[in-house]
Amino acid sequence: MDSSSHPCCAHHLHHHELRVEDLRVSYRGVPALDGVSFATSCGSCVALVGPNGAGKSTLLKAVAGLLPTDKGRIFWRGTRVSRWSREIAYLPQREEVDWKFPITVRRVVAMGRYPQAGWWRPFSKTDDAAILRALEAMDLLDLQDRQISELSGGQQQRVFLARALAQEAHALLLDEPFSGLDRTSKAALAVLLRTLASEGRLVMASHHDLETVRGIFDEVLLLKRRAVAFGPVGEVFTPENLEAAFGPVPQGGKEVA
C-alpha cells in the first residue's frame, strides 16, 4: 500500500496525540478499568495485552466514545473525547458481527462515508473516490460485489479496515483482530497494520499472543484493570511486568488470554 497514492493519508502525518488520564469505567457499579493513564500518537502500532477481564475491550470502546466513563479524561488531538468521533474508527470482534446479514463488501465499505456524507444524502464524487481508494488499498476490488457471508476471516477483517479507511479515520481501534484467523491471514493482517501505522495512523489493537507482539507492535499497554506498564515493547515486556499482569507466565508465552 503506497501512501503517496492516497491523498487522504497526508493529513495523518501530523502527530495527533491520544492521551488517557486516570480513566475509570464501570459496569453496574463494578470497575472494569480504574486509574488507567497513557499517551501515544499517530504513527504508532499499540497492543493492548492482559488476561481475560483485564478491560481491553472496555478501553477500546471508551476511547472510541462508545462507553460512558466514571472518572478521568480522554483527549484526542487536544480535544476531550465525550462521544463518537469520525476521526476514530472502532472495529469490533468478528464474533460480534452478523456475517449472515445480506450486504455486499462495497456497501459495508461505503458505510464509512456516512459520517462525512450523512445517512440520507447521495454520495458525492469525493465519497465515491474515498470508497474506491479504500477498496483498492485493501485489495478488495474483485470482491466488492460479493456478500460478506462468502468471505474468509482474513477477507472480513480487510473489509472492516477498508470501511475505516473510507471514513478517513486517523485512529483505528481493533478488538482482537487476529482471533480465528489462520496463519497466512494473520501474517497478512500484521503487514497491513504495520503499513497503516507507517502511513501515519494510530493503530491500537487488543492482542493475546505474547510471542507475536514484538513483531507487530511498537508499543504495548499491559492491562489488569489498571495499567501495569506502558511503553516500547522491549521495555514493557519484562518478567516482572508480565508476572504482574498474568501471574506466572506459561512456558513459551503463547495464547495467554
Structure in words:
This protein is globular. The chain is about 30% helix and about 25% strand. It has two domains: about 160 residues, Rossmann fold, CATH 3.40.50.300; about 80 residues, no CATH class. Helix 4 runs antiparallel to helix 5 and helix 5 runs parallel beside helix 6. By secondary structure, the chain is of the alpha/beta class. The strands form two sheets. A six-stranded mixed beta sheet has the order 6-7-8-3-9-10, sandwiched between helices. Strands 2-1-4-5 form a four-stranded antiparallel beta sheet, covered by helices on one side.
Total domain count? 2
Largest sheet: 6 strands, mixed
- The CATH topology annotation of the largest domain reads as Rossmann fold
Q: Output the radius of gyration.
A: 18 Å
**Strand arrangement across the biggest beta sheet:** 6-7-8-3-9-10
The helical percent reads 25-40%
> What sequence of helices (H) and strands (E) makes up the elements?
EEEHEEEHHHHEHEHEEHH
CATH architecture of the largest domain: 3-Layer(aba) Sandwich
- The assigned structural class equals alpha/beta
What is the 3D form? globular
Distance between the termini: 31 Å
Total beta strand runs: 10
Helical stretch tally: 9
CATH class of the largest domain: Alpha Beta
